[in-house]
Specification:
- It is a single chain.
- It contains ten helices and five strands.
- The chain has about 300 residues and is of the alpha+beta class.
- It starts with a helix and ends in a 17-residue tail after the last helix.
- The mean pLDDT is about 75.
């Protein structure tokens, strides 16, 4: 009979029925019914001093369903039912296989153990809940950072196929991240940069774990070719990633600025013609092969020729 009562108190289906279909609902009612059944049965059997111990074991099962808040309710009910059971014993309503004074002493000891166990059980589950909460917050924070980052992140397997893509890559080929999965990454790279990228990608895999490399390539972005700084990390050895992580940063404007600065350094700002620096560079380029072949370069000074404004 006791096994039936004890089993019903720890039965998930029974507790779900009491909780209106949920194991985290009506906590006090479920604990109250369980403690009442156990205390009544144990008191009638003459072992009421141990009833609070069984109630604590039942509460341990409820912690798994309802969390750390169970221990406070368990402590209150344990104290209350210990007083009730021992009060019935003093009043002669129930009997005990032990002498009354021994039964009281045992009940106090069992209650102390039950309270300490409930406290430690609740504290342990509280730490677990806090750890789970911190992990969930970290995951949400990471997802928010990736989702709102201007840099695109993709993961490639050894064959160069996409296994992960951050939401930012939806601008690549105007496809969503889900649509790009399983596609060849090289299809988004400019044809003139594909050979360089393949060489770098193969070398990165051959260099082994934790290797990384940086290169600039043109990638199709929103229907136009734009320059990207791509940093590749070899994380094939990491089971959580199992791929090559590619971080992308749009550097198109930087490339344009660099080209404009290079042009301004070798051309006159008014005429657009090559200046002294460009002339010197071209002369040096012409003189290098002439030094090997013995070719002579002559400089002719034309009279009354106006000096160039360079």
């Amino acid at each position: 009979m006791m096994s039936v009562v004890f089993g019903a108190c720890r039965s998930e289906s029974v507790q779900r029925w009491i909780g209106a279909g949920r194991l985290d609902n009506r906590l006090v009612l479920r604990l109250l019914l369980a403690s009442t059944q156990v205390t009544a049965f144990m008191s009638l059997a003459g072992w009421g001093c141990f009833s609070v111990g069984l109630a604590a074991l039942i509460a341990g099962t409820h912690v798994r369903w309802s969390g750390s808040r169970v221990w406070r309710s368990t402590a209150v009910l344990a104290i209350g039912y210990t007083l009730v059971a021992q009060g019935f014993l003093l009043a002669g309503v129930t009997q005990s296989v032990l002498e009354p004074r021994h039964s009281h002493l045992v009940a106090v000891c069992v209650l102390a153990v039950a309270l300490i166990s409930a406290f430690h059980l609740g504290a342990s589950d509280k730490r677990r809940e806090q750890a789970s909460l911190n992990l969930a917050r970290t995951e949400h924070r990471f997802e928010a950072l990736v989702r709102n980052s201007t840099d695109a992140i993709v993961v490639l397997d050894r064959e160069g196929l996409l296994t992960y893509a951050s939401p930012t890559v939806q601008h690549f080929n105007r496809q969503s991240a889900e649509e790009l999965l399983g596609r060849r990454y090289l299809a988004s790279v400019h044809p003139q940069d594909q050979t360089v990228f393949e060489k770098v990608f193969t070398g990165l895999i051959e260099n082994g774990p934790a290797a990384y490399v940086q290169l600039d390539v043109r990638i199709l972005h929103d229907g136009e070719w734009r320059w990207f700084e791509v940093v590749l990390h070899n994380l094939l050895h990491d089971p959580a990633v199992a791929g090559i992580v590619a971080n992308h940063r749009d550097i198109t404007q930087r490339r344009i600025d660099q080209e404009q600065l290079a042009y301004a350094a070798t051309h006159d700002s008014l005429t657009g013609l090559a200046n002294r620096t460009a002339l010197r560079q071209r002369l040096e380029a012409c003189l290098q092969p002439s030094a090997q072949t013995g070719t002579t370069v002559a400089v002719i000074d034309v009279d009354e020729f106006k000096p160039p404004s360079v």
